[in-house]
Amino acid sequence: MADDSGPVEFDLVILGGGPGGYAAALYGASAGMNIAMVEELRVGGTCLHRGCIPAKELLQTAEVLRTVRGAAEFGVTTSDPSLQLATSQTRKQAVVDRLTSGLESLLKGRKVTVVPGTGVLEPDGRTLHISDGTTIRGRNVLIATGSLPRELAVEGFAFDGERVLSSEEVLQLPEVPARVVVIGGGAIGCEFASFFVDAGSEVTILEVLPQILTGVDQQVAQTVVRAFQKRGIKTHTGVKVLGFDGTAVRFEGKNGEEQLPVDKVVVSVGRRPRSENAGLDGAGVKVDERGYIVVDGNMRTNVEGVYAVGDVVATPQLAHVAFSEAVVAIKTMLGESPVPLDYDKVPWGIYCHPEVAFCGLTEAQAKERGYDVQTSSHRWGGNGRALIVGETDGMVKIVSERDGAILGVHIAGPWATELIAEAYLTVNWEATPADVGLLIHAHPTLSELFGESVLALTGRSLHG
Q1: Cis amide bond preceding 444, omega within 30
Q2: What percent of the chain has pLDDT over 90?
Q3: Nearest alpha-carbon partner for 320 in 29, 16, 47
Q4: Which end of the chain is more exposed for a tag (fewer CB within 10 A), N or C?
Q5: What is the mean pLDDT of residues 443-452?
Q6: 113 with 230, same domain?
Q7: Looking at residue 445, which CATH number applies to its domain?
Q8: Is residue 187 part of a domain?
């Protein structure tokens, strides 16, 4: 990448080819920027190779398994299904490979230079030293190095790829374990718990906080707990994990110290920013005490011309957030004065069963901020489409300011992760119940329950 005259210069050099990096490359290239992107593996990052896509493919396998098991309820006769996890793993990899190839073609078509290897930012803040010994220089530099699974700082829980698995390692299992403990009841932990119980494992979730799915409205989270209990998933909240000896997990809970014999432990206690070894200190890029790169609302670091997006900054660790941050960063580089993201309103999707999705404030958060709150909650038991598909666990809950805008929408139930799109538009545009309540929702659809819930906040309703 360099000759005797010095390093090749680009409009933008990106360190990291995950969602934040490749979104910036594609968006910037479509605006005419000359871009290089440094990536040590194949483009796509954690989301495509070790996170969102492979995890959701396995969860789709679980949904197919549930559907076949319940076929008799619909009058469809079939033998008792069994799961061949190796086959599902092969299908998962085929999906990942197809998406990766498509992304590589997009980057090539937009003339983005993909540089294999790792990069270190040099003290000038504009030059990257590549692991093959070459250097490249950018008028702007974007750091998008992502994150890594956090280890649990308790004896016996270091990742070993055999008994103690990270959220990435668990995606490679060749067969279903009989007994699984999931440490961490957040979004990723609940997704894995949901998959394993469908696959036939005995599953227990251990969560240090008082509630699983922290950040989800408490009433909605409780509906998930009840649904999990019906499916056989045990949940222990407010616990302290004490240790693992290779055969049993020790923890202290409401009943004192207990032991759980297990075959596999999945540690899902969050992800840490991957900001080390990138030369940030030498270039003077400010990093906080947790390792996150400090940025402003336009994704600029404290060093002129250096930006950062995605999991390496202290914003929601979601691929679609990284996409949006990348757009903000590129627009800023181009001098277009973008509107900074409102992270309070980001849509979240959790693909356990029942699915969970939300955006905006919970009821508790809205009250803490001083709003005069009114809420509307409707369950799926009266929704025709939910009854038709046989999925009635969960609810839709709307949080609104009295005589004001809708502040948050929280959904648990069938296709919640798709239904949240309308809710996000509603919250993001600060619509009122009167604005939305009389909009037409096709019948019979799952989306009707959102419409019913909003309409109820106007003081009148149909079925609710």
Answers
A1: yes
A2: 94
A3: 47
A4: C
A5: 95
A6: no
A7: 3.30.390.30
A8: yes
Model confidence band, residue 303 (pLDDT cutoffs 50, 70, 90):
very high
Known catalytic residues? 443
Is 328 in the same domain as 358?
no
Does residue 237 carry a pLDDT above 70? yes
Q: Is the pTM of this model over 0.85?
A: yes
- Rg value, the chain, Cα: 24
CA distance 372 to 367: 7
Inform me whether the pLDDT recorded for 402 exceeds 80: yes
Nearest CA-CA partner of 24 in 310, 252, 265, 278: 310
Structural domain that includes position 8: 2-148+272-333
Q: State the total domains in the chain.
A: 3
pLDDT digits (tens, 9 = 90+) for 12-34: 999 999 999 999 999 999 999 99
Q: Confidence class of residue 431 from pLDDT cuts 50, 70 and 90?
A: very high
* Residue 342 located in a structural domain: no
